[in-house]
Amino acid sequence: MSFDPATLMTLTALTAATVGALLVFAWAQNRSHRALAMWGGADLGGAVATALLMTRNHTPDFVSITLPFGIIAVTYAVIWAAGRAFADRPLQPTWMAAGALVWLLACASPAFFASTQARVTLISAIGATYMLATACELWRDRGEHLPSRYPIVGCLVLHAGLLLARAGVAAVWTLPQGSEVLMTPWVALMSIEPTIMVIAGGFLQLSLAKERSELVQRRAAATDELTGVASRRAFLEEGERRLNAALRQGLPAALLLLDLDHFKQINDSHGHHMGDRVLQAFARRAVEILRPGDLFGRVGGEEFGALLSNTGPEAALRVAERLRQAVEDLDFSEGDVELRLSVSVGVATASGPSCDFGDLLRQADHALYGAKSAGRNCVQQRKLHAAPLLRAV
Question: Which one of 51, 124, 178, 310 is separated from 221 by 20 to 30 angstroms, measured CA to CA?
Answer without folding.
Answer: 310
